[in-house]
Design brief:
This protein has 543 residues and is an all-beta fold. It is 1% helix and 38% strand. Strands 18, 23, 24, 26, 29, 31 and 32 form a seven-stranded mixed β-sheet that branches. Strands 19, 22, 25, 27, 28, 30 and 33 form a seven-stranded antiparallel β-sheet that branches. The longest helix has 8 residues, at 287-294.
Length: 543
């Protein structure tokens, strides 16, 4: 294809024509500079900061519900401004923050955090909140920069090589190798500040043993105002690893500890989750659609102005004690074979299915690389409360589009740092639009040289095949449901379940909360005659 030459400052119209036949589907327009060799499949969509569209200015009403507040912050710290707004009819809003009425490049979220401040950075900030055809400015918020009298703290440390430790502080500090020591006979020969982030120091050490846990001690470190480290000294554990950020799909993130539980505090292995499907319902490849469908709780619900009926899979809690490696066609899509059928989903395909998964992962100090191969999109979050719209949730990996079974789009594989041993809360939401459907959740080795090498991947909680696999634990308070086993003899179903107790019920159709369940037998096993026509659904009910 002949490259299209664009002239700086000139506006261009872009038309995207997408045709879909069957299976997964999505479309995207991206760009790259001449000479950029990034594969097309790994490019991000063109940012909204570069796009405009024609729209009716009277179509949307934007209301700012929370104005940004004035902030006083010390030099060498950062300041954060936030705005909240609603729009009617509901669509995603766009944001553009300004400093002294000048756009801040890249400040396009509902909150904005400044770089490290200097005494000359006092200014006014406000946000332009946008919907198609509408732009509403927030009130101005004043930033006042005061003198720096706050001591620095050592936030976290990690290694990127057997002779390299990265130390991240709360603010820019003065680098000096003499302020650092490592136990087990390892020496520190130099400390260099990151030229793009002076709060980060790169420490060169003598050789460390890969996979060994060391203690880094920082003593007497000073910030740019000569405030001394607090507490002084500070000791942090660091696992010697080989980690190349260039191999990552996105920047390294740091897990929060606010929702962490102590090791050993949970004992039931596996995952919990919900599944929903609405016959004739929407099939948008959208995490927001999946959330709305799941949160309907078996009742009618509204999406994009249309009211839909109840899910024919009541979105109650399910439990999985094994791994997350589901598909619906039996053809083992994704990286790792051995897929199983999606729970309570008809084999062969259902469109517009939504699912969420909650669990606590047993993690130890160090860097992890996790990934999700899916058809279609998903969102993976560290979520302290394990609920939808968790205000403390940290997005780790998000692919909010339709695709076949894949993990190459940015966000599919995500790296994070664990600074303290513990059980960390994770929530994954997944949606299927039309066609095929699968999801598998795995850990990938940091030094994997060949992405097609299946030995690079280990399913989460698959300690049966790999004792080193990350262990998953069901959230507390969840009671595992019974496991039903069915065999067919002629037109008779032989149904048994474990653990024992309860009784069997059947229904000819699933109608959400209106489903009529009838007693089908209390003996275990129970025999049920298959009806000549129609459907038959069974469940085990409590005594």
């Amino acid at each position: 294809m002949t490259p299209v030459a664009l002239v700086a400052g000139q506006q261009y119209a872009v038309t995207l024509l997408m045709k879909e036949g069957g299976g997964g589907d999505y479309s995207m327009v991206a760009w790259r500079r001449a000479g950029d060799t990034t594969p097309a499949s790994q490019l991000q969509p063109i940012s909204s900061a570069f796009l405009e569209t024609y729209a009716d200015p009277g179509l949307y009403t934007v209301t700012i519900t929370q104005q940004p507040a004035d902030v006083t912050s010390g030099a060498n710290t950062k300041a954060t401004f936030s705005v909240a707004a609603t729009v009617n009819p509901a669509i995603p809003l766009a944001y553009q923050w300004q400093k002294n009425n000048v756009d801040i490049i890249g400040a396009n979220a509902s909150s904005y955090t400044t770089p490290f401040l200097t005494p000359t950075d006092s200014a006014t900030y406000h946000c332009l909140v946008r919907a198609p055809g509408k732009e509403v400015p927030s009130a101005n918020a004043a930033l006042t920069v005061s003198a720096d009298n706050i001591p620095p703290t050592l936030s976290y440390v990690y290694s990127t090589d057997t002779t390299k430790i990265i130390a991240v502080f709360s603010e820019p500090v003065q680098p000096s190798a003499g302020n650092f020591t490592v136990n087990q006979g390892v020496s520190v020969s130099s400390a260099v500040a990151d030229p793009t982030d002076p709060s980060t120091l790169s420490l060169t050490t003598s050789a460390m043993t890969p996979g060994t846990l060391y203690n880094l001690t920082a003593t007497g470190v000073k910030d740019l105002a000569n405030n001394v480290l607090s507490p002084n000294p500070t000791i942090k554990a660091v696992l010697s690893q080989v980690y190349d950020p260039a191999t990552a799909q996105q920047p390294l993130k740091v897990l929060q500890t606010s929702g962490m539980k102590p090791l050993g505090s949970l004992t039931v292995r596996g995952f919990t989750g919900r599944i929903a499907h609405v016959p004739g319902g929407p099939t948008d490849n959208s995490n927001a659609r999946a959330e709305a469908e799941l949160n309907s709780n078996g009742s009618s619900w509204t999406w994009n102005g249309t009211t839909y009926g109840a899910s024919d899979i009541i979105p109650e809690n399910y439990t999985w004690t094994g791994v997350i490696n589901f598909d619906n066609d039996g053809d083992n899509p994704g990286r790792i074979p051995g897929d199983t059928q999606f729970p309570n989903v008809t084999a062969g395909g259902m469109d517009g299915v939504a699912m969420d998964i909650t669990t606590y992962l047993e993690l130890h100090t160090g860097i992890y690389r996790l990934g999700i191969n899916s058809d279609d999109g998903f969102g993976a979050y560290e979520s302290p409360s394990l609920i939808p719209a968790d205000p403390q949730a940290q997005a780790l990996g998000v692919v909010d589009l339709g695709r076949g079974a894949a993990d190459t789009q940015p966000g599919s594989i995500f790296d994070f740092l664990v600074t303290q041993d513990g059980l960390y809360p994770f929530r994954v939401i997944w949606e299927e639009g039309t066609g095929g459907m699968n999801i598998e959740w795995w850990q990938k080795t940091l030094d994997c040289a060949d992405a097609t090498d299946v030995t690079c991947y280990t399913l989460i909680n698959d300690t049966a095949n790999n004792p080193a696999a990350i262990k998953a634990f069901q959230p507390p308070g969840v009671v595992a449901g019974p496991t039903i086993s069915v065999t067919l003899t002629g037109n008779t179903l032989n149904v048994s379940w474990a653990p024992t107790g309860g009784h069997l019920e059947s229904a000819p159709a699933l109608l959400g909360t209106s489903t009529v369940w009838s007693p089908a037998g209390s003996a275990n096993p129970t025999q049920i005659t298959i009806p000549v026509s129609g459907n038959l659904f069974i469940r085990v009910a409590s005594p």
